[in-house]
Design brief:
mainly alpha, two-stranded antiparallel sheet, 14 helices, 2% strand, transmembrane, membrane
């Protein structure tokens, strides 16, 4: 009896004959490569829907870590020009992205550690002061007599509630201790959450710096394949807005904090280093630097130094006015050719929508919208080519 090999079902396995083997798929033409083929169009739509589904699923999975990833991208975009120059000078090594990542982490960790240390010292002093005044009361300060209005009413309230230790103890006991513990737990939870997000941001930054050249190449390929050259122009506009925001908000804000820090030291402000840091951070957001300066001036006024308080307020108002109306528009708007109104709306609306991350996302989104507006509103072919790239 002769052995007979069963013929494989159509569409499965391989077909062999005269010592040659070939895939069954070779027997059928790939209809997706045929232009205008209904099967090809259906496959392309299916691939697009499948890709969109997995991208949406990935974003949903990473939703709690998206802020950390976006912060890592912002750090990478801001430091990439300096990283490239350093890489060209010293060559590409495995240590370079690690050193850059550690340096950027220390930029944040050192000031936060100093603020935390000062806050712990002040908290300890405050607890000691509270324990003392519960037995002695709070004497009426001399500056109450210099108030321009409501002097008698304020002095009477102070005498009735703060000078007498018994009344002061009743005031302390009126605070809800359970609510205070709940607030403490909430603050601790938020600090732990922010620390975790910061750790993942730094980790993201390291990998973006290490593989930055390959990532940029692939992003440009995807952009050109999907949107054409205008997609690359749009991406470059958004990146320029991040660079301009770093220079216009972060660096200018730190400069304001440095100038006001010198003023705080010269006017003998309580905790001048702490107030300089707070002013620098607050000044990164338009219109928030002045309240910090006013708070420092009030502490100076409580010490009875009215002239010093006025000098701090006037100097702070001048510094913030010049920075917000002249320096920032030139740095942020100049890098993206955006009007300052667009920049201001992007910053304020971005902070309101995205939190602190909106300082960078808001201007980047507005820069993209502004570029699209200029492309769509171009009234000549030459202008269209200039805007669209």
């Amino acid at each position: 009896m002769t052995d007979q090999t069963p013929t494989p079902p159509k569409g499965l396995g391989k077909i062999s004959g005269k010592g040659q083997e070939r895939d069954v798929e070779d027997e059928f033409p790939d209809e997706s490569t045929l232009p205008g083929s209904p099967v090809g169009r259906a496959q392309r739509r299916s691939r697009g829907l499948l890709g969109f589904f997995f991208i949406a699923l990935a974003l949903f999975t990473l939703k709690n870590f998206l802020p950390a990833l976006l912060w890592g991208c912002v750090f990478a975009i801001a430091s990439w020009p300096l990283y490239q120059r350093t890489e060209k000078k010293f060559g590409r090594t495995e240590w370079l992205p690690m050193l850059f990542t550690a340096g950027i982490a220390l930029i944040f960790l050192i000031p936060l550690s100093l603020v935390g240390f000062k806050a712990a010292e002040e908290a300890q002093s405050a607890l000691h002061w509270i324990d003392e005044v519960r037995h002695t009361g709070i004497p009426m300060p001399d500056w109450l007599n210099d108030l321009p209005f409501e002097r008698a009413q304020v002095a009477r309230w102070w005498q009735n509630n703060l000078v007498n230790p018994e009344h002061l103890n009743r005031l302390f006991h009126s605070f809800d201790a359970g609510h205070g513990m709940a607030v403490t737990r909430q603050v601790t939870t938020q600090v732990a959450k922010r620390a975790t997000l910061f750790l993942f941001s730094i980790l993201t930054l390291f990998f973006l710096l290490r593989d930055g050249a390959d990532i940029i190449h692939r992003v440009l390929v995807v952009s050109n394949r999907t949107f054409g050259k205008r997609g690359e122009k749009l991406a470059r506009q958004m990146i320029s807005s991040v660079h301009g925001t770093v220079a216009g908000l972060v660096l200018v804000g730190l400069g304001e904090g440095l100038v006001m820090g010198v003023a705080y030291v010269l006017t003998d402000t309580p905790q001048p280093l702490l107030f300089a840091m707070l002013t620098g951070v607050a000044a990164m957001i338009p219109f928030l630097g002045l309240p910090t300066v006013v708070l420092a001036a009030l502490l100076i006024l409580i010490q009875g130094k009215m002239i010093s308080a006025i000098v701090v307020v006037v100097l702070g108002a001048i510094v913030i006015f010049v920075a917000d109306h002249f320096i920032r528009p030139a740095l942020i708007g100049g890098s993206t050719q955006m009007p300052f109104l667009w920049v201001l709306l992007g910053i304020l609306a971005g902070v309101e929508t995205w939190g602190l991350l909106g300082l960078f996302l808001g201007p980047a989104i507005m820069a993209a919208v502004h570029l699209l507006w200029r492309i769509w509103s171009a009234d000549s072919e030459q202008e269209l080519l200039e805007e669209g790239g």
